């Protein structure tokens, strides 16, 4: 029992700055004129080219608010309509956790880091083999999200491929994420009818007497647009049902440059922004000001093969530019980063993850999806990589905080005393007082001297991550009361074994 307690304390202890989220935005990869040109192009795309495949009733509502429809069915939005939607959009979105103290407020360049994706394989830390992902894997990964110091929310990182139907997948994904993680969670839906069922599941998790819409600890991750420039009818139905149920939105567009969006980064950003703003207008048509976060994720192609590449410099700067554009429009933002093309947590994974996440954070992305635990161009997830990435994200978030000028930070009298006295600051009261607020210390990264490292077993960061995962997987999240879990199991066919 003591070993279990130590394992939890090691990862839950705030070994670095503990306070409000750092605010990014210092990095501006687009000059003001260039950012304005991309925004203007997005407005023109919506006005001239538009988007087809909007469900008829929603299209009728849009036309009643000022949209027009071309002979070929493409729904077009005049600039004044988009600007009106922008003026009424929620500028911040509150995402509570299941536990009160775990919530986040998204918007204004506050940087939060999370998971996401739909990996179909898991790298097994015990065998170093790749295997199909399961519901137990999803539960374990989300439990680590709940414990990780620098991961603030959890979107399902893997698909539970052992579920027998799409309905079972959606219901059990929602339950596993809820049971494993007390932080804000996000789920997606295979079918619009599943939205209401999952909200009913969450109502049971709140005890039945507390409306989910008043405590929406889960947000809906919805792909409302299919690049290039088409609405997803199913996605739009899910969006409307989530609004009806009071579930905050994270709506996504993810064109792939050179494939489903223009090959130029500027063109890909303009098209992607137009798709995001089309979602904004439709949210405004259904319920003005409804809490919505905009995921503008300009994916990159390796044009030698056509495959998606998540780890290149182009991906890093495109995501940073996407964050800048959304921040400039005053919209709560999500971008993607950390999508290394490496298949294991090696040097390639380290450098690709580090600069993609760092640039997005420095540019002021409010939420950074896909940031932790992903490998193989987001087709593989790894619990060990998740913990390594948590370490990395702590350092990145500290860099976003920047250099702070504080009272007593530059003290000439103390400098005089030190340089004419002991000649070092190690014993100074300020050094001891500030060592855990001014500095961040890695939990898995090694800073020992070479001899001490060898004497301790010469373990790599992967070795230490494997040890930590084994210890943490013995923990049992305790935030979901047993009677509420039993009520859910009575109402739904839950495949996750009891007592995991």
Topology diagram in text:
Elements: H1 2-12, H2 32-48, H3 56-64, E1 68-69, E2 75-76, H4 79-88, E3 93-95, E4 104-106, E5 112-113, E6 121-123, E7 130-132, H5 135-147, E8 154-155, H6 166-180, E9 185-187, H7 193-205, E10 218-223, E11 225-226, E12 230-231, H8 233-244, E13 249-253, E14 256-257, H9 265-286, E15 292-296, E16 299-302, E17 307-309, H10 313-329, E18 333-336, H11 347-362, E19 367-369, E20 374-375, E21 380-381, H12 383-401, H13 412-419, H14 429-434, H15 450-455, H16 461-472, H17 482-491
Parallel strand pairs: 5-19, 6-21, 8-9, 9-10, 10-13, 13-15, 14-16, 15-18, 18-19
Antiparallel strand pairs: 1-2, 3-4, 6-7, 11-12, 16-17, 20-21
Helix pairs in contact: 2-9, 4-9, 5-6, 6-7, 10-11, 11-12, 12-16
In the CATH hierarchy, the third-tier topology of one domain is known as TIM Barrel
Q: State the helix count.
A: 17
Tell me which CATH architecture of one domain applies here.
Answer: Alpha-Beta Barrel
- Residue share in helices? 40-55%
**Which regions contain 5 or more consecutive residues with pLDDT less than 50?**
1-18
Briefly note the structural class of the backbone.
alpha/beta
Any idea what the radius of gyration is?
A: 23 Å
Strand arrangement within the widest β-sheet reads 5-19-18-15-13-10-9-8
Outline the biggest β-sheet. Answer: 8 strands, parallel
Strand content of the residues, in percent?
Answer: 5-15%
On the 0 to 100 scale, the average pLDDT is: 94
- The CATH superfamily label of one domain reads Trimethylamine methyltransferase-like
**Rough outline:** globular
CATH class of one domain: Alpha Beta
Report the span from N to C terminus: 17 Å
How many individual β-strands? Answer: 21
